[in-house]
Amino acid sequence: MTQTCALVTGAARGIGLATTDLFLEKGWRVAMVDRDRPALLEAAATRDNVLAIARDVSNPQEVAAMAREALGWAGRIDALVNNAGVAEFGPIEHCDFETWRRVMATNLDGVFLCSQACTPALKETKGAIVNIASISGLRASTLRVAYGTSKAAVIQLTKQYAAELGEHGIRVNCVAPGPVRTKLAMAVHTPEIIQAYHEAIPLNRYGSERELAEVIVFLAGPQASYVTGQVLAADGGFDSTGVGLP
Ligand code: NAD
């Protein structure tokens, strides 16, 4: 039997790279997808059992090629982790259409395209999809009109896919991370936002990439075999409090 394979998007750094490493520790192979070719190649060069696929998840032709390349290499896809994402924070009046489309293209179109492209392979393995949303998709707040809306849509997309693909044995779940000190977050979290998160989160701290990876890999694997259509907030308790987003 060939080795179990995960396809992780946005795998060059941050939560996607930590997820790649945890899959590898558990004996999976990983098709690492990212549009940042230099960062991706650098990350892949120091890891065994990976294939680097430099593709943009918002482009339908590139996503089709991505699925072909992963399948050609591994012969199977057991889990798809839709993790690639971009963040833009700003007032609604400053969110021009180009910004709106850029956020939607990666955060929403990318999840739709990758899920669709990998569905035939996932039917063969009765595999799993894990989408990465955000607490910004669970709660409305200022400054996140495009980001929050894209992540709320990912939560609904998760439920649509779970409802439709369940009969094929495919499970589809979603993780809603709280703040993690990645490049994406640190580009938009001001000192005020950082302080406010620490106060609003019951555990009083940011999460780590590894803590998110543990939840993602759990949902992707056999321990979660009866879990589908769910949103798991890995957020230090933030969503349970009802406090508004900073
Ligand atoms: P990150 O910026 O460290 O990593 C994101 C990766 O995605 C990068 O390597 C980037 O090149 C890649 N990427 C972006 N657009 C792409 C595209 N169109 N095609 C292919 N690759 C693309 O960010 P991160 O914090 O690790 O984010 C991972 C996911 O977690 C994102 O979906 C993000 O929205 C979500 N998230 C992060 C936080 C946080 O605080 N860090 C909180 C909630 C949700």
The proportion of residues in beta strands is 5-15%
- Spatial arrangement of strands, main beta sheet: 3-2-1-4-5-6-7
Number of helical stretches of at least 4 residues: 9
Please outline the major beta sheet: 7 strands, parallel
Bound ions, cofactors and other small molecules, one mention each: nicotinamide-adenine-dinucleotide
Helix fraction, binned, reads 40-55%
Q: Please give the CATH architecture.
A: 3-Layer(aba) Sandwich
CATH homologous superfamily annotation: NAD(P)-binding Rossmann-like Domain
What structural class results from the helix and strand content? alpha/beta
* Overall tally of structural domains: 1
Radius of gyration: 17 Å
Structure commentary:
The chain has 246 residues and is an alpha/beta fold. It has helices at residues 14-25, 37-45, 60-74, 97-125, 145-165, 183-188, 191-200, 209-220, 238-241, and strands spanning 5-9, 29-34, 50-54, 79-82, 128-132, 171-177, 231-234. It has a single domain (5-234), classed as NAD(P)-binding Rossmann-like Domain (Rossmann fold), CATH 3.40.50.720. The protein has 9 helices and 7 strands. The protein has a 7-stranded parallel sheet with strand order 3-2-1-4-5-6-7, with helices on both faces. Helix 5 links the parallel strand 5 (128-132) and strand 6 (171-177). Nicotinamide-adenine-dinucleotide (NAD) is lined by residues 9-10, 12-16, 34-36, 39, 56-58, 83-87, 106, 110, 132, 134, 177, 179-180, 182-185.
